[in-house]
Fold these 2 entries.
Entry 1:
Amino acid sequence: MNTIAILGGGLVGSLLAWRLARQGKKVHLYEAASENAPQSAAYTAAAMIAPFAERSVCHPDVFNAGLRSLELWPELLKELEQDCGVKVRYQTQGSLLLAHPSDYAEMRQFEADMRIHQLLNHVSVQHLAGSEVRAVEPDVAAHFTEGYWLKNDAQVDNRSLLLALKKAAQSMGVEYYFNSQVNKDHVNKGQVNKDGGDWFCDGTKINAERFIDTRGVNAKSEINNLRGVRGEVLWVSCPEVNIQRPLRLLHPRYHLYLVPRGEGRYQLGATEIESEDRSPVSVRSAMEMLSALWTLVPSMSEARILSFETNLRPATPDHKPIIQQHENTLSINGLFRHGYLLAPALLERCEKEYSLNLNMSLFANALETDYA
Ligand SMILES: Cc1cc2nc3c(=O)[nH]c(=O)nc-3n(C[C@H](O)[C@H](O)[C@H](O)COP(=O)(O)OP(=O)(O)OC[C@H]3O[C@@H](n4cnc5c(N)ncnc54)[C@H](O)[C@@H]3O)c2cc1C
């Protein structure tokens, strides 16, 4: 049987391995990191599927793909549970957008953007007065006198998702090769040449009929103008407070969020810095994130810090994803800060345009929704 080699086991690679295996394909997945120490942006991400919160900062194509992904994720997770017995937590309580009173200009700008996109009166966009903010999220600080509840935004438990995808894929025969760094020959020889050539893993040529390059930011050697954008996050534990949905703070210098991650844990993030530096979180970023935490939920001042983490988002110049076929290699990349928002919709597109049999069309007719 023809083998499909997937290069990179982050978000896109993991989803593809499972979908292809379930269609009876023979799949080998090569991942540079070790099995127990994931390095993917997918692992670091907050995994919000938040097209409404992102609308004012993303391309219309990304927004529309996000709407489609909101429809596809629940179906995919249902199938994943059938395949591996793991129910991945999927939050559907929307996100809550807040601004400190001194930053209400940011809120008015958000409103102006939503009005331009004819979304301000959308059924899933609800303005809240201060008392309504507290009715929705009682632990939010009293100084927030208004907010927006973006009711259709969602969030997926990415770490259990990645484990579940691996479990399902392996049960269907996908062979995983960890600690396996894959490159084109020209990279191994230190040459700049993006045209063709074989794929090698640790000096050995990989034999496969088709390759899918999903190496995130490390695919720079094959994709022009791909860059990494540094994102820093921190995790805290605070079982005493009970935030139900992602809180997003509008601020003139940074936009940060606080995401409930279950069992009293919260993820706070993320910076967005034009740098490919993977070194630990800076003091400045830590202070900005912690001050956002304090501003949003003062009762979290006694929260315990669990970890600081850094990773790189793979980004293109226009911040839209890139799908390109060159000889026998399909590259899927540039998902930037929208991997979870985009992935199911992108897979559907790959199925239609690049003849990858992923059985995504199964959902097509049943789910079409008019968001106009
Ligand atoms: C801090 C942060 C927060 C984020 N929050 C969100 C969010 O809330 N919502 C959202 O939609 N998106 C979010 N994202 C973006 C999302 O994580 C990415 O868009 C997504 O993970 C990209 O998927 P990918 O598969 O292309 O790359 P990755 O997930 O990075 O996977 C690439 C994989 O390839 C492997 N690899 C690299 N080089 C090689 C090689 N030479 N050989 C073999 N394997 C290799 C890597 O180890 C990795 O496992 C966030 C990202 C960050 C960093």
Entry 2:
Amino acid sequence: MKPEELKALVYQLAESMGASPKEVQVRDMKHKWASCSAKGRLTFSRDLLSQDFGFIKEVVLHELLHLKIPNHGKLFKLLLKSYKETL
Ligand SMILES: [Zn+2]
């Protein structure tokens, strides 16, 4: 997948979830697949682009959900599961 395609996927899923990332960027990251800043900027690792689609989507959903829920608590897990099944 190309960086533009990843960004398009992020915005498409964001719309379905009612989340609004301030900015989406793709760059080299050493230790993780993605991150979410307190100000709503999502950053995805360039390495993610070569992973399979299902995994990419899961990472994107995870970060988008952090725009609504900053932790990994029960509600986060529950919602992530339901988004994975429905989106
Ligand atoms: Zn997380």
